[in-house]
User: Fold these one by one.
Assistant:
Number 1:
Amino acid sequence: MDRTPSRARSLARPISLQLSYPRSFAPPRQTVSTQLALSLAAKGAEVGLLDIDICGPSTPRMLGLENEEIHQSASGWQPVYYHENLAVMSIGFMLSKPDDAIVWRGPKKTAIIKSFLKDVEWGQLDYLVVDSPPGTSDEHISIVQYLLHCQNLSGAVIVTTSQEVSLVDVRKEINFAFKTELPILGVVSNMAGFTVDTETLRYSDAAGNDISEAVKDLLKGTFGEGLRAEGQVGT
């Protein structure tokens, strides 16, 4: 199915979305950026979703676009279209296999991010949502350097979870934003209200045998109610 819109557009009003999340668990961050892009598109806006998580691109999978490819034309790279008004670009579209590892140093990451902004035929966008990896490294420095002086730059949204090990990273992201004069639109505390009844959890061994009760008894006997608290302080 050809999702490419028939009318040509040029990049106009970008909103840069800087997203951070604990390094061990990225999908919820990309869920927020994906849902934001889908919501804006559903309201009729022309939206671009740019995934600059070079080493862990998940956006194609989040949108069910794993088998799509980008194409080169006289005007530049053609992004993949989820809808006529939602263009998507990710290095995940360039991999021969989804499990291929990208082992790049900083300069190569910087170059591909510049190409995503400069050489992609984004069209006349109302919003450009940029999904970045956690941290304050090459990807973040590059995207801020390229977009900070855009007249219509809205700012950054920080995505985190409520535990302290996540907030440590987020404080660094916020300091990075202050140092680079990147406006912060707000902080999303993902899964902050999520609770689960441990009695509903099921566990099995390597052979598939149900060992739920034994595991629950072991956890209660070892940690009691202090499992979460102990994890916060690193013990």
Number 2:
Amino acid sequence: MEISIATFRNAMATPINKVAFGGERLVLPRHGAAAVPWCRWMTCLVVLLLVALGGPSAAVRAAPAVADWPLARLSFQPSMAAGFRDTNGKLVAGTEVMHLVPYKGRLYASTSLWMENDPAVPKACQVLVLDSPQGPWRVDHQFTRNNLRYGSLKAVTFTTDAQGKPIAPATLLLAAPDVFRGPVQVYCRDDQNGEWSASELGTVTKYATTRSIGSHRDTVTRIDRIFAGNDKLGVIGGYYAPAEPGHIRWEKSAELATPAGERVMSFCECNGMVYCATSRHIYQRRDGPAPDWKEVYFCPKETSPSGIRGLSAVPNPAGSGQVLWFAALSKARRLDPADGFKETIELDIPAYLTRELGMRVTYALAAYNELLPFTVPGTAEPFWVFGFECCYPARVVNADPQLKTRAQKKENPPAYFAPNARYCIRHAAGANITFAVAEVTDARQPLLVSTRVIAVSPFVEDHGKALYFGGFDCNSVPAHNTAWIYRAELTPENKPTGNANGVSGK
């Protein structure tokens, strides 16, 4: 039996009395707070021998070796680099790609003009669209100078009306740009004429962002609900209203007030309940005609610029049902609703990257929007993937001339961001959770900084074997047309082109 390198590395990094293998836990005596090195090596030896012999339970499925993970050997080609005119003569501009959304056979992207330093470029975000794998990107909608950055781009399907009566499924593409002041709006695309019409959440007098949009079937009223999370206006609920502008009718007051100084980061459904993450809190909605939200998690040390990211539901590694997965304070975490929202740290991302890259990493901002599930066509092997950015300490950067030249340097507070666009792959085999790190490869070595978003190709000719990666993060550093999108294809097993584990640190 082949033993995964990831299994060995995870065992090495695990506390001496918490080594897990094949979905079961090996408990050994603990020799004080600082276990001596020979104990850790002996633990790893025992684990590897047990795994090689089939483990304590022959029915447990072992994780595939990292080298066999298809997502670790993708072939990348540039798909979009901002700073060109589309086939209609419109300027495609942007410093960041914020979202990638498959919708009705096309791929849509949203952009940001934050930190754009060319005064000739309009500081107004855009929705872009790609009609085919070989086609060019083009501007689908141009917003105004009151809309610097995209907060949300989301496809939502309604199957009930406002009274909870069944209707033919209606799928809408919704967009919520940030505003400097004035009406806060959510736009809906009309697929017949390509126009975008707006519904209104409220009005603000200073900069506001609708960072997230979510949907949920209320378990009591049986009405398909939609939620928009705005940092100034709170979480506002709505429902499908096809006769109204924007096809959504929003409630007049918020269901949940956004905590002061925080943003509404994401929504997700887990075990039939809907959850909302703000910068430092996670709330659970109690459904019904008079709904309310209950706090189930608080991360006091998290900050609004980073915040709780990627709130998603994943299968419970310890049993049935689902658990909440998210990233906070540079760690991948889980909460188990069935166990009093008990928290589990899945991965210390900077510590893991330090081992994998061979250079110290001090910070990671991971899973900007969500954790993407992916099953390789023709298999039943479950993977999840998320992008991230990371920082090196000054001494690491200064000791490497090439890295010093390429790293993104932030002045205040001082920080060095890796120039690479990397992503993490998560695999679950029962309770055995393993990770791999890989990166978007481009021989030209452009400054990419961050993978913000990943989406599976919507094009039928790809047969689910292609993905799109998008990103860049300005990190308060002036930039010009740095937004990017790459197309990635699964490669034959004998032709790996990606680089997993030991990826370049430069």
Number 3:
Amino acid sequence: MNDLTPTREQRTAALEGMGCKRKRVEDIRFTQGKGNYVDDLKLPGMLHGDFVRSPHPHARVKKIDDSEALKVPGVLAVITAETLKTVNLAWMPTLAGDVQMVLADGKVLFQNQEVAFVVATDRYAADDGVNKVVVEYEPLPPLIDPFKAMDKDAPVLREDLVGKTSGAHGPRKHHNHIFEWSVGDKELTDAAFKKAEVTIKEMISYHRTHPSPLETCQCVCSFDKIKGELTIWGTFQAPHVIRTVVSLIAKLPEQKIHVIAPDIGGGFGNKVGAYPGYICAAVASIVTGKPVKWVEDRIENLTATSFARDYHMTTEIAATKEGKVTGLRVHVLADHGAFDACADPSKWPAGFFNIVTGSYDFPVAHLTVDGIYTNKAPGGVAYRCSFRVTEAAYCIERAMDILAQKLNMDPAELRLRNFVKPEQFPYHSALGWEYDSGDYHTAMKKMMEVTDYAALRKEQAEKRAAFKRGETREIMGLGVSFFTEIVGAGPSKNCDILGIAMFDSCEIRMHPTGAGIARMGTKSQGQGHETTWAQIIATEIGIPADNIQVEEGNTDTAPYGLGTYGSRSTPVAGAAIAMAARKIKAKAQMIAAYKLEVHEDDLEWDIDGFRVKGLPEKFMSMKDICWAAYNSVPPGMEPGLEAVSYYDPPNMTYPFGAYLCVMDIDVDTGVYKVRRFYALDDCGTRINPMIIEGQVHGGLTEAFAIAMGQEIRYDDGGNVVTGSFMDFFMPTAVETPHWETDFTVTPSPHHPIGAKGVGESPNVGGVPAFSNAVNDAFSFLGSTHIQMPHDYWRNWRAAKELGAVG
């Protein structure tokens, strides 16, 4: 070796593979304003569509008069439910097994529901046309309170379901009831509660909120009448699923549908499902023969597209006096709005809420979920979480703090006493999951040591004493949160959408010069896939990440995949990428053996190529192997170097984390100050630490927003009162706290590279940390549980009700 020969460290660094803080390659175009978004698309002759929307939450549609609208210059057509009935498209299936009106068919069921679709030559004409459509309504009593949905005298919302005593998920017990879903052993759980020395019971509500991505939902549909082909550009988190859904709805052959998702400005679950705008734009293009664009505004996005949460969880824990939990019992009232349009795997009507046992060794548990209809927008998507996991984590983490308060025990100590132990993994929970790996005690103890938790508790005790003496008007709260998330949907044995197994895919094609292209069934909305996917390939096959081009979002070129949401990209697609790369490497080894004139078993992998065992000077780089693959392969071998992998995971993955929020609240104003927020995440193998940190920062900011003010709120008349960013809390850099991040590494034993996923974790763990901080602050004043969101006014009201304010 001469002085110019790169060292092993230099060769590894040159790859920029896994573990490297590689800069995001996407940001080159984004920071220069060169991103390619749906609304940037302009096609010749393109038309624009806009919706007439209902001002009423519940009303009969008596008449739609479009005569004046059609006189507006530029308006070409007004599409209504009656129009759609002529092509059997007035209703569309939801991912949850329900059906949903595309346009109001006889009645409206939530405020801002789509009533008619105006097609015009430009957006201004479309908007003018919308304002000229006259709709005659007969208002009906709105049903907003989910706790009144199954009253005897509750209004019938879904008249299309009258007389149907069963739905997609079993029997219905009321005309506004959707499903009842239960899991666990009820008899053993009831017995545990009868024998319990200590029990707690609390209604823990997770309010309705909204993903509110920076870019709203939008699409451009272009139908080629000659070829009979429909091309759809849209903000789709799962392009292949959209293609299949459109084929099923529109009865078009799937090979004649081309779905393209360009750059997407955030998704967070909001862009998984199909919306009326997609269907109406497609119909309008088919009818007119011209491209049709639909772009919703912010108010439409917040009030009419998929919401998140709205789970009301009656939670009970049984325990010993020493703080050992012996049973968990939860009943959930799930408000689904006007239609059941949750984006959950088909067999899981309440998503993966049965992860509600959390990180704790509950010997028995029982869960029941009742889904109901109300006069609210449909949805129930996984807003930066995996299918109702955020609700489950909030439920158990608040309940553990309530139990600690009743036992007069420190909440961190209570958790340490009840964690699943490292030697128990793989751990089978009382509600049916198999946790793959974890070291919860180490993570919690590291959090306590780094933050000097004991000193913080001492400071809190001193501040409480000072408050009682009248020396301060601030109270201090410590919010402990320890979560286990279930991600990586999922194994075909228990996960599908519309009958399609939730595998994912990767195709890698290496070129003769040693560069390559990789296509996946996922779709980034800001996660940095173009950066991290190339890093996995770089480590696996020894080609620098800069030489790997990553493509997603085009159903014509990408292999079929189930998309990006619920932190499934790395656990499923990341595994598919590694497996495809290993197929490439296996063929490359045979080519190298042929070229080096040895048996392939005589070769060993060495960072970026193969070396003959015992003869280090006999080496062939992957770059040279790529060239050989196209001109001198072994006899009988096909030329080329490419591979496809469809990965069906054997299990979910289970990332976890330990969070602490330190908060001060002024009782006279309700104003809070997040003094410190520490977040330790364990996501298994870390592909790109810098991107992980960015994901954690983003997720914590959303958790902060949700816990401290972000809410879709309705008044008693069914009007949305937080339908714009004037009222819907969207934190800026001014309000957002400083985030302190940390990690442990516990690889997943079944994942090819040991990765678990991290994008959703900070939202899952962050919300209960903030809420526990507020509740901990007020606990010494006599409070047990204060519902979210914890905005200034609610904090002040809580202080007043507890007698802290005169």
Number 4:
Amino acid sequence: MGFLAPWFLAGLAAIGLPIWLHLLKQHKTTPLPFSSLMFFERRTQSSIKHRRLRYLLLFALRTALIALLAFAFARPFINSTIVASARGGKLLVLAVDNSFSMRQGNRLEQAKSDAASALSKLRSEDRGLVLAFGSQAHLMGEPSADVSALRAQIRAIQPSDDHSSYAELAHTLRSLTMSSKMPVEGHLFSDMQQTSMPPSFADAALGDNVTLVLHPTSQGALRNFAVEGVTAPRRIYETKKVRIQATILSTGGAAGTRRAALVLNGHEIGSKSVDVPADGRATVEFTGLDAPYGMNRGEVRIDSADAFPADDHFYFSIERSDPLPVLFVHGRDTRDLLYYRTAVESSRDAAFKLESASPAQAAELPLSRYAFVVLSDVGDISDALDQTLRGYVRAGGSLFVAVGPAAAARRKVPVSDAAIRDGRYSSRDGVAFQTAATLDSTHPATRQAGNWADVKFFRYFSVDPETSRVLARLSDQTPVLLEQQTGEGRVLVLASTLDNVSNDFPLHSGFAPFVDETAHYLARLDDRPANATVGAYLDLRSGREPSGAAIEVFDPHGARALTLAESAQAQNIQLSQQGFYEVRRPNRHNELIAVNPDRRESDFTVIPQETLALWQNTGQGSHAPQAAAGESERKPVDFWWYFMILVLALAVLESLVSNWHLGVEKEAA
């Protein structure tokens, strides 16, 4: 036993107070008047009788009261193992890595076996929790002290195609500490891949009251070849122009010549040999792809002959279709048609086929069959064509309008009805031309600022933006490229012409890329790659589907990935497996999505021991030695308030005894 404030023990000196009251103050002489003392004999009276204590019970109560009060203020404590264990146990978290790399050999089974053995550390006052993690942590159940239930949860862990993230694991352990109000002892069962650590080491910090115990399933790096990625177009229109590139990765010191094969719909259609350097990359290219019309499942395979064949292939999807028709409506001058047609035909994938028509001819055509419509300085627009264009755009079509002198005579932009205020002209002989000053880099039409470099605008028109989005402005802040949403469609306006009269844009190398980017944007041909990574999210709705329309999604095993309620409401879906996802929409715009594991999982380089030690030390619980099961823990326990209860009880008892003695003396008097 000890005292937290021992200087208060000096108060024990106050015990002399009841001694003085009971011993020195009990003998009193009361003078009495008397006429003469001559007949009295002088004698000495003994004081022994007067020095005897009286009221021993009252004296004992008062002495104990003062002593206990001094002890209470001194705050006594004891080191008690019983009280230390009464504070509660810890949360034993068994974190099993079930990422893609754990498919190598028997790593996952070994991790699950080690996790089951770690349950022996679970004490009676502890709680156990099992979780499987990749890029996200998944709790296998609620915290429990039932060892058999925890073993069943460990057995239920299945391998995944996800990428492991130790930052996500650290975040989960910190969250469990706060939610459980218990110290967390985490046990990590993983292959300790270096690629699992976040770029910023602080993101993997464990935090207070977290202890991390490591159980590695691998002791070193693994020699491995993998198909790291495939670059292929999502859609092809001209089979001879198709180029497919595959990157072969080497890790762990592996080097050699590999055979790469191109597979389409399960059939090998070509192969090449590629020399892969140690811990490096090599590229192999396939040209030409005679794919059938519709959705096709592509794959590049290698014969790696290594210990991890799961990453020896890479999926990609490719769709073959005819070029999309585009309607170009023009006036009398055909120079704009010549420049625009040349730019379209030189596009990267030959995705479009241009058809030209006069305004009168366009009024008789079914616009719904065109990917988008171009109005190049058209002033003579009949009411029939105007109504057809408005219905086409409201239904989701796209319109590109180039404003020239003829279009400006109408004083408003077709369909969008934006006001055309005036025209502005600069002489070619002078220096008073305008250039593009500000560009919206987030829009496909203007994200390549180099396309607009050194373009001179000699004649342009001031279009009132109103509710339009301004994508580009000239030096005098006049909007030169605008976009307006109309119904479900879009209208893109260029406040100049497409010929080389009002500007010299068609003479610059950036004109063809500008036409190509805007054409893909207006035709709603997204630039998503031909494959996605496991864990990515796929947007299901583009805004063109009817409200509440059901979109069906089938996973790589052919099972429905969404319930009936989700198919009518879900905006996106997470791609959690490798393989091909099929998306079926009510407007027949179906998609085939190829999904591959993150190739960081193919690098089996292990985290250095120094880094692992630093990681463990980021948890406050890591600095203190952990008590083993059944061991006791000594902790100082302050029990001053027990003394205060005794002081209160003695004070009440002293008052009762004192009153009783006082009553007896009064009766004797």
